[in-house]
């Protein structure tokens, strides 16, 4: 019942903010709920759609990506320093362990965070502890794609996405550095004095494409790759939208949606786009679903705070959600954009 109560609190908050809402259609009380704020949501989330928990007991999971060639989900368990593989028969195994080999205090988020797949099906990862973007080769080796900008170590790459031309865009907030206690021994040193968004070109060149976002986190391209959405987690909670120029640089940055005044413990983090251009983004209200024009259509809430999400199954219409210690999914109507 707690989830239903929270959903109604959110609806009241949206009403006070002047956001139109429709009657709440609750799902299983102990699993999740759908809050419908616009009739357009029915084209995306079926009436009666249910959130299902498919696995639990993880540390803190992030960065899900569906491997279409094998029909399974990959994701990071950050404090357990591992990349996990979930198969539809319910089995979970670690396919990469001890990604960060150094010492660290218990509970520090040290492993990989965001994951994606390149055109050859290789895992490309944002590594917190190693402060780099890497590619895991099929022979078991690791290729470092970026770990320094102008000779200074990156902060702690968080999330990433690959364009169709092979360019990799990633966010680099101070997530790892914030994770240590102020008086911790051997605390990592911040070398860059800003939180950046970068592009790694196919030729291996590292370009800074944005540094005006306080805490860049999740990011996603529009279906035509002419726009890039970037989440900012703190201190305010909002999403930016940029035009992607022909040369791959960003221009005309503007706020897509500001959720600072919406109650909830979640923050703008991972996000994904469907084939119609709608945005599915983790935020204070759970997963917030926006039209391409920035209108909030509805929200999906979960028993745990969502961190990221990915389109799965053969048709790309199942949304898998990593939420702290649990993996969840919900069946939708529209396929998503995925690697």
Primary descriptors:
mainly beta, disordered N terminus, four-stranded antiparallel beta sheet, 41% strand, globular, six-stranded antiparallel beta sheet, 339 residues
Can you describe this structure?
The chain is mainly beta and 339 residues long. It is built from two helices and 28 strands. The chain has helices at residues 2-16, 175-179, and strands spanning 25-26, 33-36, 52-55, 61-67, 72-77, 82-86, 92-96, 112-117, 123-127, 132-136, 142-146, 148-149, 152-153, 160-162, 168-172, 196-200, 206-210, 216-221, 227-232, 238-244, 250-258, 271-273, 279-283, 286-290, 296-301, 308-312, 318-323, 326-331. The strands form seven sheets. A six-stranded antiparallel beta sheet has the order 1-2-25-24-23-22, covered by helices on one side. A hairpin with a 2-residue loop joins strand 12 and strand 13 (152-153). It is globular. The two termini are 37 Å apart. Residues 1-9 and 20-29 have low confidence and may be disordered.
């Amino acid at each position: 019942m707690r989830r239903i109560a929270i959903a109604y609190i959110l609806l009241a908050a949206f009403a006070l903010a002047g956001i139109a809402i429709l009657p709440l259609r609750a799902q299983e009380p102990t699993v999740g709920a759908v809050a419908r704020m616009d009739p357009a949501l029915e084209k995306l989330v079926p009436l009666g759609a249910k959130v299902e928990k498919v696995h639990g007991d993880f540390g803190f999971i992030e960065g899900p990506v569906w491997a279409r060639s094998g029909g399974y989900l990959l994701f990071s368990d950050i404090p357990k320093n591992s990349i996990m593989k979930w198969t539809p028969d319910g089995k979970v195994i670690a396919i990469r362990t001890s990604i960060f080999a150094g010492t660290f205090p218990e509970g520090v988020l040290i492993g990989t965070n965001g994951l994606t797949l390149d055109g050859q099906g290789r895992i490309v990862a944002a590594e917190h502890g190693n402060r780099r973007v890497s590619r895991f080769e099929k022979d078991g080796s690791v290729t470092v794609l970026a770990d320094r900008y102008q000779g200074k170590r990156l902060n702690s790459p968080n999330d990433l996405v690959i364009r169709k031309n092979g360019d990799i865009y990633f966010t680099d907030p101070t997530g790892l550095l914030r994770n240590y206690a102020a008086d911790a021994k051997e605390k990592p040193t911040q070398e860059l004095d800003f939180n950046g968004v970068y592009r790694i070109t196919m030729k291996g060149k590292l370009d800074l494409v944005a540094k005006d976002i306080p805490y860049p986190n999740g990011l996603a391209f529009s279906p035509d790759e002419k726009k890039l959405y970037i989440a900012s987690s703190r201190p305010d909670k909002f999403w930016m939208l940029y035009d992607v120029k022909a040369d791959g640089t960003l221009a005309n940055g503007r706020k897509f949606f500001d959720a600072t005044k919406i109650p909830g413990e979640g923050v703008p983090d991972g996000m994904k786009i469907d084939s119609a251009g709608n945005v599915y983004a983790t935020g204070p209200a759970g997963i917030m679903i926006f039209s391409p024009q920035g209108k909030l259509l509805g929200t999906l809430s979960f028993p745990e705070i969502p961190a990221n999400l990915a389109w799965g199954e053969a048709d790309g219409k199942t949304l898998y959600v990593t939420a702290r210690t649990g993996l969840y999914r919900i069946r939708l109507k529209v396929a998503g954009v995925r690697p």
